Amino acid sequence: MPELPEVETTLRGIEPYLRNVRIERVIVRQPQLRWPIDDDIQLLVGQTVRGLTRRAKYILVETDVGTAIWHLGMSGSLRLVTPTDEPAKHDHVDWVLSNGKVLRYHDPRRFGALLWVLPGEDSTHLSHLGPEPLTDAFDGDYLFARSRGKSQAIKTFIMDGKVVVGVGNIYANESLFLAGIRPTLAAGKVSKARYNELSVIIKDVLGAAIKQGGTTLRDFVGGDGKPGYFAQQLRVYGRGGEECKVCKSLLKEIRQGQRATVFCPQCQR
DNA sequence: ATGACAACCTGTGGGC
DNA sequence: TGCCCACAGGTTGTCA
Length: 269
Description:
DNA repair, zinc, damaged DNA binding
């Protein structure tokens, strides 16, 4: 599930149940995630959650003695359950909370992570990241400047977290379609005008998806944890071989950097 | 430095 | 029905 809008939706869903709440127990059933969960995570026990924030696709949970950092990987999800709910397969971590809830982490592929950093310590995972796409620091001028001299394809360029965070495979495909840019173009050969359009489109697409996540927020916490966005609105992702919704040409599917790329050979040049 | 590619792990769906 | 392969929302590390 987790692209940036899903992470943002998760954050908004769990935030009211965690803020100012004490963590009574931390139960780790399976520490072998993307990186092994450090025993220091037990420092959370007895701490009150001061606040939750997001950086890229990481969710930061702040306490007085350190910050816990969740990453949902490809298949991770966080939801609130009650202590009587038996953990199922792939329910790797529980945080038992003072308000009677349990924050439960589920992740079949175990590409996610739960990290711990001390106050003032910089997480190596966050320090090298590029700007957030929904901030003013991310615009056409920035993309234009960063891309000069690059032969790398524009799709893998905008998916590079050192360039900009939060643009995953779905939204990279969709944004390039809406911008009319062929994903295989060398990033260094794309004009400033086109980068201006692309940056606006990325903001719009991510913003709209977050808004949709917001509408499913209510069932999210009590429900099955699946953000019910969006599939109907996807223009190209997952539609290789089908008709372009704009021009009826057949959408082409290729692979770039081990990821599926779908584009319209007519609309995207 | 850059960019292409493998790797981590499990589940699912298509083809035979 | 069952087996095998390819592929799935992400990120890091290695190698040429």
